[in-house]
Amino acid sequence: MNHGPLELEELEWLDDIFLKYNNEHSILDVSELDGLLTAILSGPNQVEPSKWLLALWGGEQHAPVWESQEEVQRFMSLSFQHMNDIAERLNDYPEQFEPLFGASLVDEKEYTILEQWCFGYMRGVSLDDWSTLPATLQPSLDLIAVHGLEENFDKLDDMTHEDFERDIAAIPQAALMLHAYWLGQRSTVN
Q1: N or C: the chain end with fewer CB closer than 10 Å?
Q2: How many CA atoms lie within 13 A of 146 on its CB side?
Q3: What SS3 class is residue 116?
Q4: pTM for this one?
Q5: Which residue blocks in the chain are alpha helix, DSSP H?
Q6: How confident is the model over 104-151, as pLDDT tens digits?
Q7: Do residues 123 and 39 touch, judged by C-beta distance below 8 A?
Q8: Is 103 exposed, middle or buried (0-12, 13-18, 19+ CB in 10 A)?
């Protein structure tokens, strides 16, 4: 298996796979995958690959029927390589951690899209028990949840451009704080 960050061509290939096997329950793209992997690497317990790999597609009943063994092997290899890169940044190089937010070009202006990453993160949170998160860190999770849960869409309607810009800058730090807390908790148990 290769190490380090995925190349642009590899990220695009993963995006194509999500588009190819998309269903109404699956994640949409690499940004959402990045969020999900960040959350499962940051949570209170280790989430088994058998669990999160099915969560990518919305459960076992929605898992793709792969075109070939090579396709599924490449998908698995790239997904785990990306996960390892995120883990290395979270654990050893937090100053290099950056969520893989999406982007959209409108009238020749690029806009950052937070929602996919945040939806993935909250999907990852749902795979574990975060109920003992201290109240002092709840605002960090709430910041991600504002952009990552459908129930908060009305809050997004009231946000200004400045609010979005603030959240773009704040979400990476929130994710790092959540990771550091749960990492510390796991270290004291082991």
Answers
A1: C
A2: 19
A3: helix
A4: 0.94
A5: 8-20, 30-42, 49-55, 69-92, 115-125, 138-148, 153-157, 161-189
A6: 888 888 889 999 999 999 999 999 999 999 999 999 999 999 999 999
A7: yes
A8: exposed
